[in-house]
């Protein structure tokens, strides 16, 4: 029974070690996911900056076109009505570009908010995993304490049994000697 108990103790400790290895692997995977998530956020920020730069460049070009057109109109009064139409078109395009920029900014804000929420959820899961790891460690310590106490009790009882057996055998030997005598 003592050997079976020791084998059970060894199995339990092996299972606990396997659980700890699994937890380490999960922590590593979580760390890798967080790193990839950070890279994605940086990529989103870069895309946002590039798109804003493109729209600003488009607006700048439209302004330059408008200025050139205005200079042409001022030098040629006969085309005034055409110029007014073009000015209206430029204003509409500027408005459209501004609406596009605003929509992109709103979209990026929404993505960043979702990413922030994902970060918070990831952090909460990490805290939960750490809490579970602490609980596992605590339970392992309790199991070790209980198993150690049981082992000590069994060893003590075994030693008491051996001592009683030796006394009985000594008493038996003494009785046999007295019977022979």
Structural summary, described in words:
By secondary structure, this protein is mostly helical. The chain is built from 2 helices and no strands. The protein has helices at residues 2-75, 80-180. The mean pLDDT is 86.
Write the layout of secondary structure elements.
Blueprint lengths: L1 H74 L4 H101 L1
Helix pairs in contact: 1-2
User: What is the residue-averaged pLDDT?
Assistant: 86
Strand content: under 5%
Largest sheet: number of strands, sense, barrel closure: none
> How much helicity do the residues have?
over 70%
Q: Tell me the overall shape.
A: rod-shaped
**What is the number of beta strands?**
0
Low-confidence spans: none
| Termini Cα gap | 41 Å
SSE string: HH
Could you tell me the radius of gyration in angstroms? 41 Å
Number of helices: 2
SS-derived structural category: mainly alpha
């Amino acid at each position: 029974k003592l050997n079976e108990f020791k084998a059970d103790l060894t199995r339990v400790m092996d299972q606990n070690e396997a659980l700890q290895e699994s937890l380490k692997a999960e922590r590593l995977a979580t760390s890798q996911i967080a790193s990839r998530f950070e890279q994605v956020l940086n990529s989103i920020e870069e895309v946002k900056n590039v798109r804003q730069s493109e729209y600003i460049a488009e607006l700048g070009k439209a302004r330059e076109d408008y200025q050139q057109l205005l200079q042409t109109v001022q030098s040629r009064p006969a085309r005034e009505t055409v110029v007014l139409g073009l000015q209206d078109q430029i204003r509409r395009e500027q408005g459209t570009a501004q609406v596009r920029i605003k929509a992109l900014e709103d979209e990026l804000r929404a993505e960043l908010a979702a990413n922030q929420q994902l970060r918070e959820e990831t952090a909460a899961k990490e805290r939960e995993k750490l809490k579970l790891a602490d609980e596992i460690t605590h339970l392992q310590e309790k199991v070790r304490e209980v198993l150690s106490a049981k082992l000590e009790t069994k060893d003590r009882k075994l030693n008491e049994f051996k001592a009683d057996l030796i006394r009985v055998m000594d008493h038996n030997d003494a009785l046999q000697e007295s019977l022979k005598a």
